[in-house]
Amino acid sequence: MNVNAYIKCNVCGCVTRVKVQAGWLREHPIAIYCGECNILIEGTVFQDPDEGQIGLQFKNATRVSYGEEADYFVESSGEFITFKMVSEDDPRAMLSSVMTPFIRNAHDDKNEIYRHNFMALLKMKEDEWRTIRRVFELWSNHSSELYLKQELKRNLIKLQEGDLLWQEKGLHTLFNRVGKFMKYDEGKLDEIITSMKKLPYKEVKELLKFLNSKEYLVNCKRRIYEITNQYIDKFQYMMPAYKELLKEVEVDYSNFGITTTSFEMLKDFYISCYELLGDMVPILNGLNNILLRKRYNESTDAKIKYEDLLYKPNSLKVKKYIPEEGFSKLVSINFNERMRNAIGHYDYKIEGKSQKILYTRNTNHTEHEEYEDEIYLLEFTIDCLKLYQSVVYMEEIIYLLETADYSGSGEKISYLKKKIYPNDPCPCGSGMKYKKCCDKLIDKYCNYIEVMGGIDNAI
After folding, report:
1. Which pTM does this prediction carry?
2. b/e per residue 233-242 (b: at least 16 CB within 10 A)
3. Per-residue pLDDT reduced to its tens digit, 20-78
4. Which of 66, 228, 376, 448 qualifies as a FRET site for 214, CA 20 to 30 Å off?
5. Between β-strands 27-33 and 15-21, what pairing exists: parallel, antiparallel or unpaired?
């Protein structure tokens, strides 16, 4: 089902025909730019799938009579990428009537995974996130351990008496109720764990001792939880881009875009992820040093000692990130320093119709400003998701470091896992049996429940 809404810009009077694709969601945001004056027009789509009804509200534009002559045409979907805005007489406006976003994605084998993860995140946000967030707040604020244990148990976390790592394990269990949906690469976690197993005990112990100085790891975790709160607020804006990540095919950014978000909605989230990941580079460098150079502080840079890197500004830390090395390659952080600086200095320009962000002005101070770099909004949204995915992998690494269980020989790190059987309840919290839920999906991390040291992840 599709609904055509004609809206008139409150600034220039330009009329746009907005074609809204019905979908799974009862409500989703809409963000488009006027094709004439380039102002942002925001709104909300309300749907009742059972009754087949769609309602729309807009800011900066007014609904006008159906069939009024339109200047521009744009698709809108809460679940899928869409044709970008074109003139009403463009052939793509006609093509959209027979090739809707839903039809273009109808035969995608990742649809089941996507819908499962999307709806599970929405349900988690509605039903659980407030209680999960307050657990993170209690821990971050150094509140009473009694209250923290109480809230963990309310979230179905079982704690073993006398376990000194109950906080780390409980927090990680809750974090994975959110973070697991970003781990779409089924082999990445196994690679991280396998690489951790290869590290010698003595050097890991020295690295942990150093990283725990001045509460460095604690502060990293605190910021991870804060950014996760931002992600929960914004993930629905980014879900069409998440679908493209799952498809793992090249996106035609010139013709297709996203109508659930804008650059202004996401830029602060981008900066938050970028800065945190930059601050956590020493963790990766230390692990890479152990893996490749035998000692955690065996720096590849003679000018800067590894111990000094922890207290250097993020701009320098990012420069010391070596993407080709061991753990850096696994986490795959995309540090676009020019984009980060452009956002920080408001050095960008938005072309709404093409959904193109121009950034990094030249410095010749001519009358006509020129920008050296460009990125499409959909591409930027995918970058935001990739940065948060890297945050999720860093939380996993921190957790593995904190809760490493050393073998009797004292040489290697080992981790314990417990198999989930087909008829067990699925860990994602859907209420279904595992064999009918996540067993066939790409989120293979659901295959295990962590029981290290006696904690049972009873989601």
Report:
1. 0.86
2. ebbbbbbbbb
3. 888 888 888 999 999 999 999 999 998 876 666 788 899 999 999 876 789 999 999 99
4. 228
5. unpaired
Residue 9, φ and ψ in degrees, nearest 5: -60, 135
pLDDT digits (tens, 9 = 90+) for 114-172: 888 888 888 889 988 999 999 999 999 887 888 999 988 888 788 877 788 899 999 99
CA distance 281 to 397: 12
**For the chain, the helix, strand and coil percentages under 3-state DSSP, each to the nearest 5:** 45, 20, 35
Residue type at 310 in one-letter notation: L
H helix or E strand, kind and range, residue 448: strand 448-449
| Helix, strand or coil, per DSSP, at residue 353 | coil
Q: Is a pLDDT exceeding 90 seen at residue 443? A: no
Q: Identity (one letter) of the amino acid at 277?
A: L
Provide the 3-class DSSP secondary structure of residue 333: coil
The answer to whether 140 and 225 are in contact (CB under 8 A) is yes
Residue type, 118: F
* Structure token digits, residue 353: 């119709």
Phi, psi of 207 (to 5 degrees): -65, -45
